[in-house]
Amino acid sequence: MKNYLKTQQNEFGQNVGCSLKHNLSIQPISGTLKGQYINLIDVAEGLSEQAASLIWDCVVTEPSEECWTYLPYSAPQSQIALKNNLQNLFGFKDSTHFLIEVDGEVQGWIALLNPRLGHAAIEIGNVYFSHKMKKSKAATEAIFLLLKQCFKYGFRRVEWKCDDANAPSKAAALRFGFQYEGLFRQDRIVKNRNRNTAWFSITDEEWSDLEKTYQQWLSPENFDAQGFQKQRLSDFNL
How far is CA 215 from CA 78, 103, 238, in A? Predict the structure, then answer.
């Protein structure tokens, strides 16, 4: 039985969740994370003019504005506006935002949102994977680095939430090993539209096996000379 399903009885004979021996003195995550193929650069450590220029070059060359449909903001209209958004963390309070650096280029951003430190839970969100990194090993490693850091810091739960109409995001969540938990109906209003929110999560109990799966997929031996995967992430018993 999964740990989250286990119960115990209290002094009144009622079923309650199992007592925890978990150390809940969780600290916020910050700092640059280095991987095999990418670096995640903590925006709070300073957004250089070069980094701002590189990410703007990526944004301005998007072949379509459809990538902004499900984000809570529209496409940035200038490099200055984009830099301001990044420095202000897009208005996400208590978040940690990272630029995704791939082979010397900045090709996207991703964030850790809504830290509930007292409950050891956090969310991966505000994901912008540019046209240069969609369905790439860079995208997968970005998720892996954040998951690895979250569970290393002692988080019990990492969440993924998205508009229920956003089929690619829901498919990505499942591909990355998140478990679907349900639908929050009329959860919020985004861009003057109703948003039903699909919830997914990974728990600390699941991470040990998932980490091995990610490591197998990210191994250089799993990619050919052109950088294409030989086996899918799901082929490694995700």
Answer: 38, 20, 11
